[in-house]
Amino acid sequence: MSFSRTLSLIVASTVAASAATLASAGGGQYVYRTTDQSGKIVDLAPRGTAHSVARQWNEVLLEGIRHDKARPTVHARNLYHTSAAMWDAWAAYDDHADQVFHHERQTAADVQAARDEAVSYAAYRILKHRFTPSVGAGYTIPLIEAQMSSLGYDPNVTTLIGDTPAALGNRIANTIILFGLSDGANELNDYDNLWYTPVNDPLYPAFPGNPDIVDPNRWQPLAIDFFVDQSGNIIPLGSLTFLSPEWGIVPGFAINDADITVHPREGFPYPVCHDPGPPPMIGGDRDPYYRWGNEMVAVWSSQLDPMDGVLIDISPDSFGNSPLPDVDDWANYYNFFNGGDAGMGWDLNPVTGQPYPQQVVHRGDYARILAEFWADGPNSETPPGHWFTILNYVNDHPLFEKRFHGEGPIIDDLEWDVKAYLLMAGTMHDCAIAAWGCKGAYDFVRPISALRYMGDRGQSSDPGGPSYDPNGVTLYPGYVEVVTAESTAPGERHEHLAGNEGKIAVKAWRGPDYILDPDTDVAGVGWILLENWWPYQRPSFVTPPFAGYVSGHSTYSRAASELMTDLTGDAFFPGGVGEFFCPQNEFLVFEDGPTEDITLQWATYRDASDQCSLSRIWGGIHPPCDDLPGRQMGFAVEEDSFRKGVQYFHGNADCLADVNGDTLLDLADIVAFVQAFQAQDPVADLADPVETYDLADLVAFIQAFMAGCP
User: Fold this and answer.
1) Rg of the chain's alpha carbons, rounded to an integer?
2) Long-range contacts of range 471-477, CB-CB < 8 Å, 24 or more positions apart?
3) Residue 487: count of CB within 10 angstroms of its CB
4) What does the pLDDT read at residue 1?
5) Under 8 Å between Cβ of 470 and 244
6) Which among 288, 423, 539, 552 is least surrounded, fewest beta carbons within 10 Å?
7) Per-residue confidence at 611, pLDDT binned at 50, 70, 90?
8) DSSP annotation of 478
């Protein structure tokens, strides 16, 4: 997503107002609306432009990400370290709050001014350090310098000595910078891999089929003339390196060692947090799921035509309100032939008490918009940064009140921002560790490799029919068929495929070869050979350069949506709806469109998360087996992260986890613990590395209870 914010806006400290006008590559924007008691739609203005220094530095960081390489893991870490630095600076002037990296208390006559200054120096130093090597440094470094000057702070004050807020901020940044140089991310070598090597030779997507794949269950690099990542950076020639397969070793925010499973391979441990187990593999016990999921990706590709006459209601009246599905509930959850999921929609907007107005649009427009919006487009802040834009959008909503967890008094902007950013960034960082740890451990194939592999072998539905192979693709009349002499006869559906009898044809998005000018051309849907199938992506991108299982988008988005619900105390967007406007013939980048003005709408944060997950199937990037485990992983990560954040806020970050999952330890917790102790319940040990509770655990727990730990 391209944001057209200018340097002067940052310098003038008006970046906050931009949340209402977040311009995508095609000019889309978040909007604020509600309905009155009569059901009439009313446009609202966002909050004013005065925002905390934490918000301003967050906007600068997001701009830096958009101009750097599109590396979700790296930038989740940048978001976390910067947010933790701002929190540590704020917490230094609090009597109770715990700090994450740098542990130091300070006093000041003007605490607000001291916090602003310490936060700014901490953020400035980290951003300057992280983005000086960036491919976009020529843009980002002047932006960072300008932001510092606009706040009236001298960047030449580099001292680490003394009690001034500047020195404190510099010390905090120094602590985190030094930590980051030895945390396993390999920052000193531009985050290069140290152990991983692919088992498959590269796929050349510009050529038919997939003749060189060795293992159809493992990830395959792509080789293209030049690769343009989702931040618009050109990487010439050669095959693409797997991004961050070893990221599972990076220390997290709230990751518990008891939740980690190790999968050693070729001298590297490949730890996985909240391990979902292996994906379905062709030739394995779950072979049908492998086929079904990738075939659904191909079938959903046939839905990317806005001229097919299919109209759907995309408003919360019909979309959303879907329970988190079980990882094995794939056959019941997705609509294989029509697209979408089992969501029931919402009867009423709980804020206005009115029904959600329907928005009936072409399914092909909707699916294409989702694929581009949630992919984050060129000039991307990457998926973890995308959820920061949603967080900032909510923060600016005129109907939103900044009450932590929806309770208690309204807190000031700086306190809200440093807490919200720490929680969101810690959650996104842990999602990166969990999801990419899984990607490295299981090294699972992407749909373009799997579909072309199966298509090369033929069909697996009819042993007595033409082109049969047990490892071929399932036939679905009207979607996946064998090309025959009859089907290529004049006037028949495969007429243009004459000469390819015996090969597999698929009704799908026809691909970038049909787009000469993306500002005016639409590839449309038609019968193509499966050996030429292409995701709904640009020819210079094709598929992200890392394994599919699990979906990073699903992991990040489910966790972020749960975090937004816990943070705000409400599952619903302010006013009962969040919206992003996509103008006719301007929003899409891969090809022209949409054919009419369309507004994406979400009643709840979870609805937005579900939509993000579906977008990756329509975009040809993930099958369902990547999606559902990612959602479950994100849900588990957020539970740990939110609890850990609350512990930092209450000043009990080193306390034991609450047995019953409540905010504070209470009598029910100690009763539950004593019962577990008496039963020697073999759960995660709390005091020493043994498998059952012992006396040391009971003592430690009672001490925590007496301290009132969260």
Assistant:
1) 26
2) 471/216, 471/282, 471/283, 472/504, 473/291, 473/295, 473/504, 473/530, 474/291, 474/292, 474/295, 476/295, 476/299
3) 17
4) 29
5) no
6) 288
7) very high
8) T
Residue of 628, 673, 600 whose CA lies nearest to 1: 600
| C-alpha distances out from residue 460 to 17, 19, 27, 476, Å | 56, 51, 45, 11
Closest CA to 15 of 67, 52, 68: 52
| Residue ranges of E strands in 332-381 | 360-362
**106-121 as b/e, with b when 16 or more CB fall inside 10 Å?**
bebeeeeebbbbbbbb
Encoded tokens for 440: 């490295």
Q: What is the pTM of this model?
A: 0.90
Tokens 């947090």 belong to which residue?
273
- Amino acid making up residue 491: G
Number of residues assigned to the chain: 710
- Strands 578-582 and 598-602, how do they pair? antiparallel
Q: Which segments within 390-446 are labelled E, that is strand?
A: none
42 secondary structure, DSSP code: E
| Element (DSSP H or E) covering residue 248 | none
- DSSP assigned state of 367: H
Question: Encoding tokens for residue 201?
Answer: 């030779």
Owner of token pair 């302010």: 574
Q: Within a 13 Å sphere around the CA of 596, how many CA atoms are in the beta-carbon half?
A: 13
Report residue 74 as tokens: 């790296």
Per 3-state DSSP, the chain is made up of helix, strand and coil in percentages (nearest 5) of: 40, 10, 50
Neighbouring residues of 72: CB distance < 8 A, sequence distance ≥ 6: 243, 382, 383, 384, 432, 552, 556
CA distances from 76 to 73, 126, 249, 253, 352 (A): 5, 14, 15, 11, 36
Average pLDDT over residues 503-509: 98
Strands 260-262 and 578-582: unpaired
Chain segment 370-428, per-residue pLDDT in tens: 999 998 644 689 999 999 999 999 999 999 999 999 999 999 999 999 999 999 999 99
- Of 465, 404, 409, whose CA–CA distance to 645 is shortest? 404
How far is it, in rounded angstroms, from Cα 249 to Cα 222?
26
Spatial contact of 530 and 467, defined as CB atoms under 8 Å apart = no
C-alpha distances in Å from residue 346, one per residue of 17, 30, 103, 118, 570: 30, 21, 47, 45, 15
Q: Are the C-beta atoms of 704 and 669 separated by less than 8 Å?
A: no
Which is more confident, 388 or 235?
388
Which residue shows structure tokens 């979906």? 551
Distance CA 657, CA 256 (A): 10
- Alpha-carbon dihedral 415, 416, 421, 427, rounded to 10 degrees: 120
- Residue 638, classed as helix, strand or coil, is helix
Q: What pLDDT, in 10s, does the model give residues 634-685? A: 999 999 999 999 999 999 877 644 433 444 455 666 666 666 666 665 444 4
Q: What are phi and psi of 579, to 5 degrees?
A: -145, 145
Query: What ranges make up the beta strands (E) of 395-533?
Result: 480-482, 504-509, 525-529
Shortest CA distance to 624 belongs to which of 470, 461, 444? 444
Tokens of 568: 């705000």
